[in-house]
User: Fold this.
Amino acid sequence: MNERIKEVYTRLYNDKFSCTKENLKELFGVTQKTIENTFKDNDEIIYDKKLKRYRFSKLLPAHIPYKIFYDFFSDSINNKQIKSDLSIITHALTDSEEILMVKTDLLSELSKKIIQFKTAINENCVLKILYKKNGFDQEEKFIKPNTIISNGFTYYLYGTYHEKNKKNVGETRTFELSRVEKIDIEDFVDNEVFRKDQFGNAFGPYQKDKYVLLEFDRMSTDFFKKANIFNNPTYEIIDIDIDTLTVKMFYNSLDIEVLKLIQQWMPHIKISNQDKNKDILYSKIKENFYKLID
Assistant:
């Protein structure tokens, strides 16, 4: 594979660059005819007349540049030192004139799914997926993929139901990637951007106005800092003094996420007096305590 084609692979995996003939002509300083001849015998990169640009012919191309692979999966590396070391290797490879490619057929099924969904998000591609519910039940769903998130162990996709789904059209759902059995291209959209910059957890994306104010003492603060938990977008530090760290904790389920944390860490993590949920949460904690000792 020549370096020009490798460079286009890199650009196609990156949604910030549209691979039109004009853009590629300017990028490489060649004629449009040269661009067309470059992909004449390449069945993985095709020119889409509807989109008026080049795209991958399938969601899982045979190769992925190493740098792109690292960008996709670096969030899963929890050890900062190892992550830093791999970053050094990545920069060294990036500085090289040759683009190192990774064969995707050698990757795990999870990595393949992540690449497929990343490609679909970049290409604004409506997907038909087969999703395994509880047990062995499977459902066919039509979705617009928006965001891939990870808690360091499990990967999730936030997707919006497409009108072909017929049920819950326009609603956002969380899909655990390990439960996705099949991913097919349904259609390409040229008047909408599917990608959304959002954070959340298995319960769904966070809303900016849905949070609880928590106060951490020295013990809980030290633990959370050493474990790099505050680097998680779930938390936003808003005030620090000698004995207390005040944090916004974003959530989807007050009963499950917030209540669980307070009960695990009481009395080292408290609800701020300024928070409107304080009385509700403490009442539930008392109720759970009496049920426990009853």
Q: What stands out?
A: The radius of gyration is 23 Å. The CA atoms of residues 132 and 138 lie 4 Å apart.
